[in-house]
Amino acid sequence: MAEGAAEWEGPAQPDAAGGEDDPRAGPEGAPADGGAVAPAGRWRDRRSGVVLPGAAGTPADGEAGLLEAARATPRRSSIIKDPATQKGGGRKKTVSFSSMPSEKKVSSASDCISFMQAGCELKKVRPNSRIYNRFFTLDTDLLALRWEPSKKDLDKAKLDISAVKEIRLGKNTETFRNNGLADQICEDCAFSILHGENYESLDLVAHSADVANIWVSGLRYLVSRSKQPLDFMEGNQNTPRFMWLKTVFVAADVDGNGIMLEDTAVELIKQLNPTLKESKVRLKFKEIQKSKEKLTTRVTEEEFCEAFCELCTRPEVYFLLVQISKNKEYLDANDLMLFLEAEQGVAHITEDMCLDIIRRYELSEEGRQKGFLAIDGFTQYLLSPECDLFDPEQRKVAQDMSQPLSHYYISASHNTYLVEDQFRGPADINGYMRALKMGCRSIELDVRDGPDSEPVLCNRNNVSTHLSFRSVLEVVNKFAFVASEYPLFLCLGNHCSLPQQKVMAQQMRKVFGTKLYTEAPSPSEAYLPSPEKLKRRIIVKGKKLPPDSEASEGEVTDEDEEAEISRRMSVDYNGEQKHIWLCRELSDLVSICQSVQYRDFELSMRSQSYWEMCSFSESEASRIANEYPEDFVNYNKKFLSRIYPSAMRIDSSNLNPQDFWNCGCQIVAMNFQTPGPMMDLHTGWFLQNGGCGYVLRPSVMRDEVSYFSANTKGVVPGVSPLALHIKIISGQNFPKPKGACAKGDVIDPYVCIEIHGIPADCAEQRTKTVQQNSDNPIFDETFEFQVNLPELAMIRFVVLDDDYIGDEFIGQYTIPFECLQPGYRHVPLRSFVGDVMEHVTLFVHIAITNRSGGGKPQKRSLSVRMGKKAREYTMLRNVGLKPIDDIFKIAVHPLREAIDMRENMQNAIVSVKELCGLPPIASLKQCLLTLSSRLIASDNTPSVSLVMKDSFPYLEPLGAMPDVQKKMLAAYDLMIQESRFLIEMADTVQEKIVQCQKAGMEFHEELHNLGAKEGLKGRKLNKATESFAWNITVLKGQGDLLKSAKNEALENMKQIQLACLSCGLSKAPGGAAEAKSKRSLEAIEEKEGGEENGKLRP
Q1: In angstroms, rounded to a whole number, what is the distance separating the alpha carbons of residues 506 and 490?
Q2: Domain containing 996: what range?
Q3: Is 30 a domain residue?
Q4: Please, are residues 262 and 304 in contact by the beta-carbon 8 Å criterion?
Q5: What's the per-residue H, E or C state across 101-139?
Q6: Which of 192, 204, 339, 496 could form a disulfide with 168 if both were Cys (CB 3.0 to 4.6 A apart)?
Q7: Is the pLDDT of residue 773 over 80?
Q8: Where is this region: Disordered (predicted)?
Q9: Across 89-93, 274-278, 305-309, 753-757, which has the greatest mean pLDDT?
Q10: How far is it, in rounded angstroms, from Cα 996 to Cα 1032?
Q11: How far is CA 242 from each of CA 365, 871, 977, rounded to the nearest angstrom?
């Protein structure tokens, strides 16, 4: 359940001490605090005294109605509309009343403490699966936490702050993990207080993630300041932030009177934060002055600082800052380094790099000199391009460009000359400029006879406006390689007479010169040349005269697909194909993209040449994809396929390109002039690989012998599924939807997350609605998606305005899965037409973990347990040919070994994370930091020592240890042992798998002959071929996964050792431990560098 805890309500239970039912609890399904029902069936919180940001819920009996309403009124710009098809079932509409404009934001530890002292209701979770509503407060002396009602004595219904050992956010204790109702509790609303020598837990659930963050931040601050708990109250006006603001105020106070005009103060705050609206700043000053009963509008230094802090402090960023700074209100270089390494996935970070970041983003001179980053500088850093969601490595060409052209997806435009609809739209030269600037690599030229023997481009439905063919060629020549230097395809729609065809050929040769690629294809080759080989070349796609003809002209079939569709729909269509005349000069310009008609896959695989390509209408391609998905993928390994939209799309709407990319179709032509969800997918997909217009297909869709079905609804053989964890934290500066006028300037935003890819990966989830907040709505909701083929998946974030009449589009951002960066990121939203909207962002947290094995270096190297279900093994299929099946049977045991080694290591890692109280998405460095905090005494002496055994980092106790620490050490030892076993055995097991794969491949060429000898024909022979390809794919994939797992384990050992050194766990008697550790670290690095024996060198 992704909703906040306030949406789940159950009957209150008696306290463990025997107390009666909580008097605050209402009837089942109603708010426990006696809230009232607002119009439209929404619950409103009416508690007085303390504002609960985000306290919200919906009545249980209203869920069905709301879901029905959601089905009846599909969201605009949402691609996946049916809630019944979504993973995890339909999502009910819920409303949060958090972050109302008049509320005071949390901007300091003092605000957190004040909130806690006022108190609020929390749910107390017990190990017996019971949940109690209790009112929690912090004593005024800040020494104890109390709750009521309780039949315990007042002195017992409390927890001393001095006894608190640790505060955990999320469901990260045994109580939460074993509670039968845990699935109904929102992860972001749960937190636990560990106390006492045995680390007992007080497990709580807040009404919203905001409230949970306030309690966690406040408690952590108190625990870290337990020796002098009142210091924060004394120094609130002397923090680095306030000192900087005073400096800014003094510099602007030209008269030196300590006051300034309101207009000056408003302008000054807007200079410091350009995203703020002037009306909002003025309203804040009026609120402050009214609270002080002032009559003057002049602003004092104190009022200026107060207004700035309340307007410019984002609570979610403040909570993050406090968390990573060890409860300070600023980051030093070490804090920032740990944040970048453990949370953001940045490798090879140094202290100097962190100090450079501080110097560039810290706003105060004092901070820059002393090396600390306060809240405003940290906010600026998180909003900077350095924290972009999009991987900077993918902003340049990062993929192998030496593969055949048929192995790439290619950005393609349909009817490029149009900027309006295809029914009546005029031809416009801007269509070519726009497409080429966007990195499009396949454009269309629909050419007809023009006046004065000059060919022209025009819409067949609007011949009154046309473009000179030569002028179009000159524009194409100018912009062809501005956005990409890789080959450009010209798809010719030839409707010209023979004389004007000759003019076309002459003009193309003259304008393009040596850029034209006219080399005859070599019959000795099996595949098309690569994009790398064809850099800055222009390739003409069109009809070609037969190679054995020497005539200067000849008759060929017509390639005008749309005209053919129209002709077939006419009443007098007799099934005959239309023919046109083609001149030799134009034919000679066509080399490796010769248009041919598609018949069937069997004929194509037998007789089609690699330089011939087929075009498919949208409807025809959809039929083939549904009926022959595996054949379509295999066909596209060698041949180019072009898909064009249906002629029935007279409004120039777009097809869904993902449906055809799943089949491996390379050239899916899009109407670039029509914005919307489908164009968002196309634009987002081709942002990767430097935006060059070419994207390498997944290896399972390229390998000559491999199995892949476009309609797969489960795990892809040989590919490790990944779990994508997305937390939608907040939004910034959402504009009012264009054309919306019913609600004035008020919007009620919510966020949809769409996953696009193979059918098994398609999913959609949505957040709650935050009412009446466009400036900084807080969502704080976490979602998890399983992605079975990451290389073909995309994530689309869509922000919508919740309206019962029809939800309005606010903004969206689409990004390929492989381009995601982990950690805390801002998503730059785009408008409906695809333009980046200034200062309009989503603040999110991204983590990617393994689901069932394997992993990729750095940002893909996290591990997560598969749960309690039985382990699943990838099964090999029976081919039906005994010699081949005997070989594959040999591979069964090493395959099981490989899966067992990977999953045993990952389960051991997750066990350590659980005992450290960390979620599966946490890094090992975060684990070691948590572990060290428990293993190092208050006098800085460790209770364990890092000992290198055969270059593996073990921890040995230095004396007697409590049971809690013994349990953690046992889990740590198991993790090292499982990692060591995998590192030492991986090469041997992988070699067995590879040998079986090689032995199987020796039968590949003779497969059909062997099948014929065994009497296999038709469907049975095809089934045998498919099973053979499946087995080869599994063997190759599992071998690669084991190799990746070994690299992951080696990297883990290195990171653990470095973390132990930095945490002080290597301080053993004798002083030689650290030197030995460094020598062992060098041994690990040597092993990563290419040792062959599979064991670490001592």
Answers
A1: 15
A2: 882-1063
A3: no
A4: no
A5: CCCCCCCCHHHHHHHHHHCEEEEEECCCCCEEEEEEEEC
A6: 192
A7: yes
A8: 1-102, 1067-1098
A9: 753-757
A10: 9
A11: 13, 57, 51
Average model confidence (pLDDT) across the chain: 82
Q: What is the mean pLDDT of residues 590-602?
A: 91
Supply the pLDDT for residue 951.
86
303 and 409 belong to one structural domain: no
Tell me the pTM.
0.82
Distance of CA 493 to the CA centre of its chain: 40
Measured in degrees and rounded to the nearest 5, phi and psi for residue 1022 equal: -60, -40
Task: State whether 776 and 845 are in the same domain.
Answer: yes
Q: What is the 3-state secondary structure (H, E, C) of 646-672?
A: CCCCCCCCCCCHHHHHCCCCCEEEECC
The two tokens of residue 520 are 């005859």
Please report how the helices 375-383 and 351-361 are oriented relative to each other, as an axis angle in degrees rounded to 10: 100
Neighbours of 420 (CB within 10 A): 16
The CATH number for 260's domain is: 1.10.238.10
Please spell the DSSP secondary structure of 502-532, one letter per residue.
HHHHHHHHHHHGGGB--PPPPTT-SSPPPTT
Residue with tokens 């309005």: 808
733 & 594 share domain = no
- Residue 740: C-alpha distances to residues 250, 773, 785, 842 (Å): 43, 16, 33, 21
pLDDT-derived band at 561, boundaries 50, 70, 90: low
In this predicted structure, the answer to whether residue 150 has a pLDDT above a threshold of 90 is no
Tokens of 765: 């989830």
Q: Which of 7-11, 529-533, 577-581, 1088-1092 has the lowest mean pLDDT?
A: 7-11
Question: What is the model's pLDDT at position 560?
Answer: 57
Q: State how far the Cα of 694 lies from the Cα of 489, in Å rounded to an integer.
A: 12
Residue 437 falls within a domain, yes or no? yes
Within 588-724, residue ranges assigned H as helices are 601-607, 618-627, 629-635, 657-661, 677-685
For residue 642, the one-letter residue type is R
Distance CA 785, CA 762 (A): 9
For the ranges 624-633, 853-862, 923-932, the lowest mean pLDDT is seen at 853-862
Eight-class DSSP state of 586? H
Residue 864 covered by a domain: no
Is residue 93 a part of any domain in this protein? no
Pair 528, 650 in one domain: yes
